[in-house]
Amino acid sequence: MNDVITTHHLTKTYGPRTVVDDLELRVPQGCVYGFLGPNGSGKSTTMKMLLSLARPSRGEITLLGRPMNRETRPALLREIGSLVEAPPGYAHLTGRENMVIVQRMLGLSDRQVSRAVATVRLQEHMDKLVRAYSLGMKQRLGIAMALAREPRLLILDEPTNGLDPAGIEEIRGLLVSLAEDGVTVMVSSHLLDEIDRMASVLGILGRGRLVFQGTRAELFDRSTPDLLVDTPEPGRALALGVPAVRSERGLRLSGLGDDDTAALVRRLVGADVPVHGVRRVQQSLEEVFMDLTGREGLL
Ligand SMILES: Nc1ncnc2c1ncn2[C@@H]1O[C@H](COP(=O)(O)OP(=O)(O)OP(=O)(O)O)[C@@H](O)[C@H]1O
């Protein structure tokens, strides 16, 4: 599978602060790539660098198989649709007038514009002022603007921000169907659940660094399942200073490898705490993310 986005040592510093740190992104063709991270972890800055809206302090970007540089930039950007700030568009114009501006700017055909509008299902609202649109309609108009050029790559920064569950569901369905048609979609969010339900590949940022990249299954492979210790006397185990929380049948511990598990069992048995069983259970996706991002409040 070809990668549509690759970066090498991609870094952004603001003064003494490194906000994007040595990223090696690999975004495969035709997937929804979920770019996740807590607020302030560097998602927007990364996407802006991919779109030449911010200049990298260091590193290289390759898009659609071509290195991004002064010569290739104009042609590459023509093939990329994006939504990176709050919904674009002039509020005092209608949806249609906004689309005409995009059409003229990019030299698009009527067919391209009407297809994009139909894809986001805004046909019936094109003669309303954008000011009167709901947030979801504004986001859909923004996506129509990004789609009209029939991009091979879509880069969307938090496109579901502020939408209600029905609006989120609608955007999610739209992005998945675009990917099925071969468009590569990179979409950022700080909402784990939302990304998990649409992305087939995940990139997770924590404090500017890529802490994980791969499929959901690979993510679970990397995590250490929690340990459940069945004991009728969890209080005595906790009194020993064992780093556990109480669970239904005893105790639950996170992040314990095999050696630590053996040491724990020895310690409990040595202290005469009855151990009826020791099992592993998979962490929830939330817990895996929390561990990776340093529990910075990813939802
Ligand atoms: N122009 C700038 N000058 C200085 N610092 C900046 C600038 N732009 C972003 N930052 C800082 O870089 C860090 C990363 O910001 P960024 O917006 O990329 O994060 P994010 O993951 O997209 O977060 P959010 O979900 O809140 O948008 C933040 O600490 C932010 O304050």
UniProtKB/TrEMBL annotation:
It comes from the Bacteria. This is ABC transporter ATP-binding protein. Residues 5-232 form the ABC transporter domain. The keyword Transmembrane does not apply. PROSITE patterns: ABC_TRANSPORTER_1, ABC_TRANSPORTER_2. It comes from Nocardiopsis sinuspersici. Belongs to the ABC transporter superfamily. Keywords: ATP-binding, Nucleotide-binding, Transport. GO terms for molecular function: ATP binding; ATP hydrolysis activity.
